Amino acid sequence: MSAARNKLKTSRRWVVKIGSALLTNDGEGLDLAAIGRWVDQLAQLRQDGLEIVLVSSGSIAEGIVRLGWRERPYEVYKLQAAAAVGQMGLVQAYETNFRRHNALTAQILLTHEDHSNRKRYLNAQATLKTLLSVGVVPVVNENDTVVTKEIRFGDNDTLGALVANLVEADALILLTDQNGLYTADPRSNPSATLISEAKAGDRSLDAMAGGGGRLGQGGMATKVRAAKLAARSGAVTVIASGREDNILLRLREAEVLGTVLVPEKSPVAARKQWIAGHLQARGTLTLDEGAVRALVERGKSLLPAGVKSVAGSFSRGEMVVISDESGRAIARGLVNYGVEDARKIIGHPSSHIETVLGFVGEQELVHRDNLVLV
Ligand SMILES: Nc1ncnc2c1ncn2[C@@H]1O[C@H](COP(=O)(O)OP(=O)(O)O)[C@@H](O)[C@H]1O
Ligand SMILES: N[C@@H](CCC(=O)OP(=O)(O)O)C(=O)O
Prior knowledge:
Helix content is 39%, strand content 18%. It is of the alpha/beta class. The chain has two domains: 3-273, Acetylglutamate kinase-like (Carbamate kinase, 3-Layer(aba) Sandwich); 280-373, Archaeosine Trna-guanine Transglycosylase, Chain: A, domain 4 (Roll). The strands form two sheets. The chain has an eight-stranded mixed sheet with strand order 3-4-2-1-5-7-8-6, sandwiched between helices. A five-stranded mixed sheet has the order 10-9-11-12-13, sandwiched between helices. Helix 4 crosses helix 5. The protein is elongated. The chain binds adenosine-5'-diphosphate (ADP) and ligand VHF. The ligand N[C@@H](CCC(=O)OP(=O)(O)O)C(=O)O is lined by residues 19-20, 57-61, 83, 141-142, 144, 155-157, 212, 216-218. Adenosine-5'-diphosphate is lined by residues 19-22, 57, 176-178, 181-182, 184-187, 208-210, 212-213, 216-220. Its EC number is 2.7.2.11.
């Protein structure tokens, strides 16, 4: 028995993502019977002490059916309208089914900005964690009605992975219409074989994973990528068939089903992985040689004394790139002072901060807990 599968038995928090193709019965409208069965399993897992965040696709596919459209439109505004219609059906189905188990659900609609903006990220994280702590099952989808093409996640595999990072889940379970990841797309390669387990970062998987079906967005390619993202906060990813009887309960029992994609590294602090991946840098701090060594060789925090110059426009809490004097980026981190204050205190020992600024802030310009070497 693989160690990663075995860990599913004792894990505490799962993000379970159900894909469009599954949910909407291949375009025939919401498969209410199947939703009922997944909810029964989720409710049982919850009863056994597992915390669940559900990421559910299907709003666009269901909206298209409800609106009586024959084809999936290309226009973003039509897709957005369909999403708004279909989302009503989705949440109604989950709410009604979880009610049978006396469980409350909560609707969470997220956008890319909620991951790239620190305040919104922390807000989303606090809300999700609060919901879990009071026993509510959050039902997450992308906020399709407000996002434009350029900034959409588009597929919910990526969203699921980022939610797994956000709540520091132990596992990301991607339920889809195939038994897992095959060596090639089984729709066009009947001789393809199922991969039972691989490393989440294994590059050879990229060539095997193809695009999606008629309804799904992204196919296996986005699932393999999602596993890599989820691995950054230490989560294992399982790709499995939502059509398999009691799939979630059986995965919990570590039955060998689907594909398990295992993180190579041990979990890094959630904050650090977020810094590494989700934020746009707002400015640059250029360090002197001593400060570079303190960061790189001794794992120290960045003090204002070691900073030679400040560029960009950032507020307290935002992400900055930290470079050496040649302009080479050596780290990224969340800065404790906005650009104006930072400019005033650089070059000064930390004991002078109060005199220079007139208030006591942190001793560090960037604390080591909020800093990732690149
Ligand atoms: N190597 C592969 N193994 C399994 N399925 C694959 C592979 N490459 C592409 N696919 C396709 O990915 C589809 C699942 O992804 P997708 O359609 O996006 O569904 P979902 O809505 O569940 O995310 C499958 O129906 C399958 O045809
Ligand atoms: N937010 C979209 C999800 C897009 C989608 O289909 O994603 P996926 O299930 O990963 O193929 C919706 O609810 O329709």
